[in-house]
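Trying the structure run again after the queue cleared.
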Amino acid sequence: MTRLPSFVVLGQGKAGTSLIYRVLERNPAIGLSQPKELHYFSGQFAKGPDWYAQHFAHIDDGAMVGEVSPSYLAPHPVRRIAEHLGRDTKVIFVLRRPIERAYSRYLQNICAKEEPGGFWGKVEKLDEFLAQTEEAIARCYDLFGADNVLPMMFERDIATEAPGFEARILSFLGLPPEEYGAPLLQGGRVNPGVMPRYLYAQDKATILRHAQQRYIVPKQSLMFCAQERNSRIMRNPAPQDVAEAMARQSSWTTQVTKADYAALQTRAVLPAADRLEARFGLDLSHWRCAPRQIVYAPSMPPERFRKDLT
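Done. Tokens:
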């Protein structure tokens, strides 16, 4: 009989769950779902328990079974996890500074869908999102108990030169420390953020230089530059295709200014930090950072269009 998870990493999205998955899956004492992010207890619940269980059938009998899905840090998924996996399930959640997380998510959605629209329309309800996160955390403690809940912070546990999340997770799960994750951690982020963009070359190729590399956009082509898996090229695009692409691009928010950061921080982030600290004993002092500008480097063309200069 296929075993189901005894621990779940709930999220948040854009808070390092991909790196957590890649590190833990290399540990022979742990067996994770294939693939990552089943989203069963959130968007895929109608597919039923048999569909869910089949994603763990490959795991060896001696391994501890777990799942990583960043969409689970919400009230309904947490309740479903307790009902279907049991209240002795260990749950892990990762929090990231809300403005940075929201902007990173905004850019990821552009990369994946090439959708138009600015950032500020997406964060109008940030305070409501944070209230839902607070309720999800409350359910974690109420349903599973404090001993079965591990809170982590993206900025302290993951996005550091020497991330310590693997040791913390293994200790929390009652597993011995391992070094399987070290080579991965030295390689940096798994899904680094970029500022997507369109590049259009008309009658001659466009050449871009970055560090010791050169990228060539072929003539008569419209290229969408994003994360590698989302980038694409359109050969001989119609004028309307180019115009629509540039119109979408002009609607994107290319940075968060210090003033905008301060306004959003005051309205939504600081009140949420106060509530979360008072209610759950979390240390969110890093959410009270000085207002900062957020800018991502523009994405370069896909690797197949790269030429080394050395």
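The chain has a mean pLDDT of 92. Worth checking whether this holds up in the mutant runs.
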